[in-house]
Amino acid sequence: MAETGLKATIMERNKKYEELYASGNLEPIADMYTKDCKIMPQGTGTINDVQGVLKFLADMKKAGIATIAMLTDEVGGLDGGDIVYERGHYETHKEDGSLDDVGKYIIIWKKEEIGRASCRERV
User: Fold this and answer.
1) Residue partners of 56: CB distance under 8 A and separation at least 6
2) Is the CB of residue 49 less than 8 Å from the CB of residue 2?
3) Rounded to an integer, what distance in angstroms lies between the CA atom of residue 37 and that of residue 48?
4) Best CA proximity match to 40, nearest among 106, 94, 90
5) What's the pLDDT tens digit per position in 16-25?
6) Which of 37-41, 60-64, 74-78 is most confident?
7) Torsion of Cα atoms, 48 then 43 then 27 then 103, to 10°
8) Are 106 and 87 in contact (CB under 8 A)?
9) Are 67 and 18 in contact (CB under 8 A)?
């Protein structure tokens, strides 16, 4: 897959993630992560599994974070295309629409089966 098509695919997945989070329907987000995923949110320890990710997201919602926006800056392939990295920046907003946080991220995507890639690590 060309980098342009790859970037578009990742941006579509990020849009779906954002929509699910905003709606509060967090359970389907679990399918976007590998079983051995890791996320490394600022100010807390590493989260090492999907259930931990879902709890982290639910806690964000409870804390009043209404939306997440992930803006992809760069995408590139590694390991013959089975692993892809994404570099970008994000914004979170409160329920009143005010800006909560901004930051940068790196996601390592891993192809698990034909046509499906899941997030392996989110830093």
Assistant:
1) 39, 41, 47
2) no
3) 6
4) 106
5) 999 999 999 9
6) 60-64
7) -120
8) yes
9) yes
Containing 58, the helix (H) or strand (E) segment is helix 50-62
Residue 3 tokens, joined:
């980098």
- Cβ–Cβ < 8 Å for 77, 6: yes
Tokens 């994404």 locate to 86
Residue by residue, DSSP assigns 62-91 as HTTEEEEEEEEEEEEEEGGGTEEEEEEEEE
Tell me which DSSP letter residue 24 carries: T
Tokens 């800056």, residue located: 73
The rounded distance, in Å, linking the Cα atoms of 70 and 17 is 9
CB 116 within 8 A of CB 35: no
Whether the CB-CB separation of 94 and 69 falls below 8 Å is answered with: no
Span between the terminal Cα atoms of the chain, in Å: 24
pLDDT tops 90 at residue 27:
yes
- pLDDT recorded at residue 120: 56
